[in-house]
Design a protein that fits this description.
The protein is an alpha+beta fold. The chain has one domain. It contains nine helices and eleven strands. The strands form three sheets. Strands 7-9-6-2-3-1-8 form a seven-stranded mixed sheet, with helices on one face. The two termini are about 35 Å apart.
Length: about 270
C-alpha cells in the first residue's frame, strides 16, 4: 500500500476560492519514501494555484495570492507534479488516458500516470474515492500548458466515459459545466489546442499584454494565476475567424448547439 499522511502544512491554508460545480479536490504531495507521501498543501478546489506553482518552478520569487504561497507546490524528482485527487469518479482514469495522454502525449510529450484508490492508504482525511496522479514535467513548460491540462483533468472527472478529446469537447457535460462558451469551443475544435506561439508565454491575456519571461511585473501574482489558457482563447477568437464578428460567432454557435441537441435527443449523456 502507498501511504499518504495528511498533516497541517506550515504554509498558510486559508484559501480564498470560488465555488466549483465539480467536486474534484487537489492536494500537492511530496514523496518521502518509495511507498509514502506527505502533503505540502491543504485540499483546494481552484486549479489556478497550479499556475503559481509552475511559475515558482521557473524561478520566480515567492508570492502569495488568495491565501496560497507559490512555494506550496513542489516539483518531484522528475520535474513534474505529484497530486492527490479526491472525490474522483469511476471514469476519470480512462478519460484522462483517452483525452489527455492520447491527444497531447504525441504533441507535447505530456504523460499522466496514476496510483489507484485501492492502492492508497490516506491518513488524516475523510475516506473518499481518491487517486494519485503524476503529471510529467512537459506539462510545466508554461502556465498555458498546466492551465489546459488541469482544466481537462477536472472535465474528465464526470460520470461520462470519453473515448477521445473530441468526445469531451462536444459533450453536453462539458458544455454545461465549463464556463467556456460556444465561441471558445469553436476555437478549441478548430485549433485543437494547438497554439504554438502562445504556448511559449508565461502569461497571456492579449497580444498587447503578454510575456515570455518571468520578470518585470509590479503584481505578477494576478497575471500568473488568472491568465492561463482562457486569455489565449479569448484573444484568438477574431484571428481564428477573421471574417466573422463576435456577434456572428456567438449566433452560429448557438445554432450549432441547438442542432446537436435535436440530433441527440433521447440519448444518454
Amino acid at each position: 500500500m502507498i501511504k499518504v499522511k495528511f498533516t497541517a502544512p506550515t504554509l498558510r491554508c486559508n484559501y480564498t476560492e470560488s465555488s466549483q460545480a465539480n467536486p474534484l479536490r487537489w492536494v500537492m504531495l511530496r514523496q518521502i519514501a518509495e511507498d509514502a507521501y506527505v502533503n505540502t498543501t491543504f485540499e483546494f478546489k481552484c486549479k489556478d494555484y497550479l499556475n503559481d506553482f509552475v511559475i515558482n518552478a521557473h524561478g520566480v520569487p515567492e508570492f502569495e495570492i488568495y491565501g496560497m504561497k507559490s512555494t506550496a507546490g513542489e516539483t518531484d524528482k522528475d520535474g513534474g507534479f505529484t497530486i492527490l485527487l479526491r472525490n474522483v469518479t469511476i471514469p476519470l482514469i480512462n478519460n484522462v488516458n483517452n483525452v489527455i495522454n492520447k491527444e497531447f502525449g504525441p504533441v507535447w510529450g505530456v504523460n499522466l500516470t496514476f496510483i489507484t484508490d485501492d492502492q492508497l492508504d490516506v491518513q488524516g482525511l475523510d475516506k473518499v474515492p481518491s487517486v494519485i496522479v503524476k503529471i510529467s514535467k512537459e506539462a510545466l513548460v508554461s502556465t498555458f500548458r498546466i492551465s489546459l491540462i488541469s482544466l481537462l483533468i477536472r472535465q474528465c472527472n464526470v460520470d461520462v466515459t470519453y473515448e477521445s478529446f473530441d468526445d469531451l469537447v462536444r459533450s453536453r457535460a462539458f458544455q454545461e459545466t465549463s464556463y467556456i462558451e460556444g465561441p471558445y469551443l469553436r476555437v478549441l475544435l478548430e485549433k485543437r489546442y494547438n497554439f504554438p506561439e502562445q504556448e511559449e508565454y508565461f502569461w497571456y491575456s492579449s497580444p498587447k499584454y503578454n510575456s515570455k519571461t518571468t520578470e518585470g511585473y509590479i503584481d505578477p501574482s494576478y497575471y500568473y494565476h488568472n491568465a492561463g489558457y482562457t486569455g489565449v482563447l479569448g484573444s484568438l477568437l477574431t484571428s481564428v475567424f477573421p471574417n466573422e464578428s463576435i456577434d456572428d460567432i456567438y449566433a452560429s454557435c448557438a445554432s450549432e448547439w441547438e442542432e446537436d441537441e435535436e440530433e441527440t435527443e433521447g440519448e444518454a449523456w
